């Protein structure tokens, strides 16, 4: 099996495409099951956030795996595969490992260094574990990606500014409102992970009074209590819109929460930060007089506050070292079946010779037979011990795959290969 990563992000697709690709939390298990049911896909993890949708997979062939995953994403989104292809990036083999580590470190985020992606990756990995769509390869990749992300944040200052998509959106709002949000009234629509991050960020920014509304009033109550905000029933949304300066939308609704008519009824100037995918603000509301709408597309076009080059370079160095380490593990894991096949062949030879010996020497007692058998097995184990330990070490080094091939050739071992005949060398797409 080889690693393949396919996705679309703010770099390659606008919000209209991302919201069609977006996978609600409740839909992830079914999509994972559809992916691993494909002929070339053996394992799968799906990451779906406000600005990216990615599939990490273990595939038996590049072209087959690429076609299988693209077809599933096309069916899910309703976007023809030929059209969808123009929005996707593809990473294969080593490039897929590097991409996953850059994502977990925040290097590929809209706001470089944001730490929220770590939680999102952890949730994606947990979902795959629950439906058993992650096997040995993706278990190792996800665990290492999470570790690399934590290391990057702990050992560098890439996240020292505490930047996130929310802070980037608030920067835009602050510019529009004269540079200072202190004392500005705000409403957060949605009490999920993004809603909670929005409430925390707004509170630190000195915004207030701060109101929270959500379809489940209990969740809004709990979040409001934690931050000293005010929970309001969703039925009072129209009324609250007439009282606030800033609205942050972060729900999981599949339909717009803020329609053009609703915003018109507010009858006042508003800054609306739409951080949801699919969008919470109806597209036809854009351009309403007095209403500034900032969505993922707007943020992608106005990215700012990136860490210093020295910080990103330090993280890139961590990623490079960790990619080499992972590839070393991978090469070692790939030779394991060959070593196992060699030991099995040795045991078969010993057993065959024992049968021949016993047929020639029927006078041997059971104890004598057992002594001879143990002696032969010990000799074989001692002869194989040093070479198999050494070949594992050599296999972990660059170019180590040649040692497994040599063993198979020298001892005529029949070891099923992990890759399909159409596998190709490393492929790296747009990132």
TrEMBL record:
The record marks 99 as: Important for activity. Gene3D superfamilies: Glutamyl-tRNA reductase, N-terminal domain (3.30.460.30), NAD(P)-binding Rossmann-like Domain (3.40.50.720). NADP(+) binds at residues 190-195. Its EC number is 1.2.1.70. InterPro entries: 4pyrrol_synth_GluRdtase (IPR000343), 4pyrrol_synth_GluRdtase_dimer (IPR015896), 4pyrrol_synth_GluRdtase_N (IPR015895), GluRdtase_dimer_dom_sf (IPR036453), GluRdtase_N_sf (IPR036343), NAD(P)-bd_dom_sf (IPR036291), Shikm_DH/Glu-tRNA_Rdtase (IPR006151). Signal peptide: none annotated. It catalyses: (S)-4-amino-5-oxopentanoate + tRNA(Glu) + NADP(+) = L-glutamyl-tRNA(Glu) + NADPH + H(+). Possesses an unusual extended V-shaped dimeric structure with each monomer consisting of three distinct domains arranged along a curved 'spinal' alpha-helix. The N-terminal catalytic domain specifically recognizes the glutamate moiety of the substrate. The second domain is the NADPH-binding domain, and the third C-terminal domain is responsible for dimerization. Catalyzes the NADPH-dependent reduction of glutamyl-tRNA(Glu) to glutamate 1-semialdehyde (GSA). Belongs to the glutamyl-tRNA reductase family. This is Glutamyl-tRNA reductase. It comes from Actinoplanes italicus. The lineage of its organism: Bacteria, Bacillati, Actinomycetota, Actinomycetes, Micromonosporales.
């Amino acid at each position: 099996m080889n690693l393949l990563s396919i996705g679309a992000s703010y770099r390659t697709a606008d919000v209209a495409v991302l919201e069609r690709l977006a996978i609600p939390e409740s839909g992830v298990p079914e999509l994972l099951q559809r992916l691993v049911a494909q002929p070339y896909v053996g394992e799968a993890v799906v990451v779906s956030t406000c600005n990216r949708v990615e599939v990490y997979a273990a595939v038996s062939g590049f072209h087959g795996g690429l076609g299988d995953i693209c077809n599933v994403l096309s069916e899910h989104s309703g976007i023809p595969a030929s059209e969808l292809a123009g929005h996707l990036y593809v990473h294969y083999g080593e490039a897929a490992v590097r991409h996953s580590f850059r994502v977990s470190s925040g290097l590929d985020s809209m706001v470089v260094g944001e730490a929220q992606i770590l939680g999102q990756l952890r949730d994606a990995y947990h979902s795959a574990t629950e439906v058993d769509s992650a096997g040995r390869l993706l278990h190792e990749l996800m665990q290492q990606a999470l570790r690399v992300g934590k290391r990057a944040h702990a050992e560098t200052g890439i996240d020292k500014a505490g930047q996130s998509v929310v802070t980037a959106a608030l920067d835009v709002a602050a510019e529009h409102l004269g540079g200072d949000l202190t004392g500005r009234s705000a409403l957060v629509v949605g009490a999920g992970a993004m809603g909670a991050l929005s409430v925390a960020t707004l509170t630190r920014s000195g915004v207030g009074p701060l109101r929270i509304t959500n379809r489940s009033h209990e969740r809004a109550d709990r979040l409001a209590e934690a931050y000293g905000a005010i929970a309001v029933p969703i039925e009072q949304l129209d009324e609250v819109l007439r009282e606030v300066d800033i609205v942050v939308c972060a729900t999981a609704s599949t339909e717009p929460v803020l329609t053009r008519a609703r915003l018109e009824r507010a009858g006042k100037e508003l800054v609306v930060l739409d951080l949801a995918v699919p969008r919470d603000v109806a597209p036809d509301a854009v351009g309403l007089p007095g209403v500034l709408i900032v969505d993922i597309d707007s943020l992608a076009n106005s990215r700012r506050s990136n860490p210093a080059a020295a910080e990103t370079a330090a993280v890139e160095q961590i990623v490079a070292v960790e990619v080499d380490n992972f590839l070393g593990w991978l090469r070692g894991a790939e030779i394991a079946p060959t070593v196992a096949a060699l030991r099995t062949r040795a045991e078969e030879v010993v057993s065959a010779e024992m049968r021949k010996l016993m047929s020639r020497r029927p006078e041997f007692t059971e104890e004598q037979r057992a002594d001879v058998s143990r002696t032969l097995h010990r000799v074989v184990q001692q002869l194989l011990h040093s070479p198999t330990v050494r070949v594992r070490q050599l296999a972990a080094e660059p170019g180590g795959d040649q040692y497994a091939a040599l063993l198979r050739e020298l001892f005529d071992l029949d070891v099923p290969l992990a890759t399909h005949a159409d596998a190709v060398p490393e492929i790296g797409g747009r990132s």
